[in-house]
Design a protein that fits this description.
Elements: H1 8-17, E1 27-29, E2 34-37, E3 43-44, E4 47-49, E5 54-57, E6 76-81, E7 89-92, E8 97-100, E9 108-113, E10 118-121, E11 126-129, E12 134-137, E13 142-145, E14 150-153, E15 158-161, E16 166-169, E17 173-176, E18 182-185, E19 190-193, E20 202-204, E21 210-213, E22 218-221, E23 227-231, E24 234-237, E25 242-244, E26 250-254, E27 257-260, E28 265-269, E29 272-276, E30 279-282, E31 288-293, E32 297-301, E33 304-306, E34 310-317, E35 323-326, E36 329-331, E37 335-349, E38 352-354, E39 360-373, E40 376-378, H2 391-394, E41 398-411, E42 414-416, E43 420-423, H3 435-443, E44 445-449, E45 453-455
Parallel strand pairs: 1-4, 2-5, 3-6, 4-7, 5-8, 6-9, 7-10, 8-11, 9-12, 10-13, 11-14, 12-15, 13-16, 14-17, 15-18, 16-19, 18-21, 19-22, 20-23, 21-24, 23-26, 24-27, 25-28, 26-29, 27-30, 28-31, 29-32, 30-33, 31-34, 32-35, 33-36, 34-37, 35-37, 36-38, 37-39, 38-40, 39-41, 40-42, 41-43, 41-44, ...
Length: 461
Amino acid sequence: LKHVEIDDDIKDYVLGNIGTWSSQGNLNLTAGQTYNHADRLRLINNTTVNDGAVLAVNGNTGSGFGGGAAPPDGSLFKASGFFGCIPTDVTVRDGGEFKIGSISSERRGEAVFYEGSTVEIETGGKLTVAEGSSLIIEDGATLFLNLNATANVKGNGRIEIREGGTLILSNPTLDLEAVNSVVEIHDGATVRLFGGDLNVPSFHTPGIGKVVLYDGYNLQLLAFATALHLDGAVIELKSNAEIILPPGKDLTLRATTVLYGAGAKIKTEEGEVRVALSQLVSEDGAAYGVQVDNPSFFSVSGSMVRGLTTGFEINNVGFGVSCSFLNTRFLENAYGVRVNRAMSKISFAQCRFDTHRGAAAYFAETQDMVVFNDCNINGDRANVLHNLDNLSDAGNNNGIQLLNSVNLTLKATEIQHCNLGINGILDAAAGNLSDLDVHAQNENNIVLTDGTALRNNTADV
């Protein structure tokens, strides 16, 4: 061949592998064996890691099967699967481990896999990404974490799924050990979720690191999967990133924190929604927590919602559907909760709404029954109007807003420091009282009982 051109995309790869030693061809590692990619062993061949065996990148031992030079402490070593027409498959079986980097000697490793390559951690297998190390899945490559497989990411370690790469999860454990342990899903990457024994895709994350989802990634729940269950996870949704479930799929957030960028949201329809012991937080403010249409069940308990345009938006609650909020705090949201058209009771118990930075703690449209029991709604004390001469301002800093026909009961509940404690004025934003306002006042039924108090508002009702 003459005049072969090496472009920028593969220049570093080719130069880095000049003089590379062969890695003994395909490997089948058995109990007690460790094969370490270090020194000049940059190419990862097809490898099966059986029970008791370890495949390493810049690990503790000498290179290869231990006979080569040991990598220096604090070093960074990069290895990769084959680039081009010969893909690499790494399979880690029950009891085996694929280990990138070394904690004890602060050696860092980077493993990169290209088009056609697959890294599969089978049930009982383990993937470990040490401090400062990384696993990178490039365009056309796949990382598959099976049921009860474990991926352990140490401090400042990361698993990165780049554009065109695929992450398949079938109920593994993602142990993101430190605050800066990260799994990144980039624009154009795909996440496929399989169910386990109950066809409920989930992943348990016992650590404190996070999964970062970028706008434009692709989420796929396979047809037989009935729900998405996030347990102990920290999910960061970058600007405009979304988790959207297909119709009829259930959503559970348990002990999970979701960090929202501008325009981010979680959306589902026609399924069950359960949120417990979780936090939904936005520092930007222009984000939506959970939007659900026509739920078959809805429950929030022991959670905190802060800084969102709308914490929860629920549309079209059918007859006989349970919809409840228990012991949950809403802080600095434009709307804590919006419910549009409900034929069943919406209940709040022991909930607290503080300093909603805009419209209202709760917005209700056409609802058979809304009950607040032992709740506190505290408006923005600093921005309470001295009078209601300017009705255009009365549409903000409200306790509860009612639209059309709503039956509202407050039991042992307090509303204070709002422009309007309970606002049944439809046209406040336009600055005038219309015929619709009278219509609203006639059709809204409000019952205050069991020591309910409305105080320190410009107008209580």
